[in-house]
């Protein structure tokens, strides 16, 4: 990796000194009055309470802004998902697992008194099987990525701006628009592919995605953390972060709520009408911060103008699923990773299982499944069951038809546009939306699917939101 830590922090503007997460900051929201007719009056309406929205809400309050978060689920956290085993009380993170070891992340967890430790990935035993047949791939062992990672790091260093949002040069370098498979062949990076695939779960057909998206996801700070170690929570309960944030935000979060309509055009404030379990409410806010996946179907009711509609209408999305299998018959310490027998670089054929892995809890395995397009939960569960059974039928390892202790779709996942759209300036135009129509944006679609990097991106955006 050619970027020094100092250079990287300067680039993203979030050096340790620049981030001062306080736990005792006064909450301006406590003084925010509800206007007549039950209106909720705030400085900022934050739409979505996942990684970006939760971080933004807490930090905006620290910056003296009053906020309200509109979250459609009954909890905060988005892709963070923790399963509690009723038999043992043990917890298991089956969504977000690890974070980058960087000052912002440490301070964020410290703020909520949640201890972190260096992440350790249980050794156990790993089989490499093609889940289409259930057979082990003869002679397959993952290549040692060491030298290839160094070469990949040299490539990354050509595009340092990938570490922050989508501020791409014009013209966008041709290499970033190549399908990643072609980029790998062009630069002799074959041996890096299995590692990139492991980190890029959920990104769809990785070899066909424009290199831009892969390099944003598997970027310089990931390389650094591969060397120095990622962080995980010591208590193996990542949802604790969001439970504590919810407690702190209190009435400033509207759970199980959805935006019915917005009016960002007239008057001094934007009006955001929301259906809540307690009935309809109107939020009057000077600014709106959108952190949900900005797909047209997910922005139903928003008063989108032509440019917003045009840009959001170009996004397509991949699909990602996770679950806990009970009684699969697989040994507790066994991982079975999907490897294509005859696919380029042995990448797993999608839609399909990425990996079934041990959980440390007896009789339970975590399964991860990906698809370039959304599938029904039932179709995914059926395919997972069939995949497990094929391992047994092929004689690879004895299996049984598993139950799902829990299962969740994390779809839509990665939002992308075709290379031609990137070349034509899609992200330059997307960037112009920041601050337009009283609206700001954060979240994975504006950076990449990585909580730590999204927090950094949000941290850099917030002073602008607060000042406007
Ligand atoms: C299985 C899995 C494992 C992962 N592992 C890691 C990991 O180990 N480390 C890591 O850094 N990242 C990991 N990620 C990626 C990480 O979760 C995402 O990058 C991050 O959560 C994205 O944050 P976000 O705020 O953009 O979206 P989200 O966290 O998804 O938040 C969006 C929120 O908006 C809500 N919402 C959506 N639509 C609406 C609507 N219309 N109205 C109101 N609310 C709405 C959602 O319910 C959600 O709470 C993982 C993701 C998955 C699925």
Give an account of the 3D structure.
- It is a single chain.
- This protein has 468 residues and is α+β, with helices and mostly antiparallel strands.
- Helix content is 29%, strand content 22%.
- It has two domains: 7-79 and 238-315 and 418-467, FAD/NAD(P)-binding domain (3-Layer(bba) Sandwich), CATH 3.50.50; 120-228 and 319-409, Polyamine Oxidase, Chain A, domain 2 (Alpha-Beta Complex).
- It has helices at 5-12, 51-62, 103-111, 146-156, 174-177, 180-187, 193-199, 211-217, 220-228, 239-249, 306-312, 377-393, 419-423, 426-431, 451-467, and strands spanning 34-35, 39-47, 67-70, 82-84, 91-93, 116-118, 125-130, 135-136, 231-233, 253-254, 258-263, 270-276, 279-290, 316-317, 319-326, 334-338, 352-358, 364-371, 403-409, 415-416, 439-441.
- Strands 1, 2, 3, 10, 11, 12, 13 and 21 form an eight-stranded mixed β-sheet that branches. The protein has a seven-stranded mixed β-sheet with strand order 8-7-16-17-18-15-19, covered by helices on one side.
- The longest helix is centred in the C-terminal third of the chain and has 17 residues, at 377-393.
- It is globular, with a radius of gyration of 22 Å.
- It starts with a helix and ends with a helix.
- Bound molecules: flavin-adenine dinucleotide.
- Flavin-adenine dinucleotide is lined by residues 47-53, 70-73, 78-79, 95-99, 202, 258-259, 291-292, 298, 320, 322, 410, 443-444, 449-452, 454.
- The site of flavin-adenine dinucleotide has 34 residues, from helix 2, strand 11, strand 15 and helix 15.
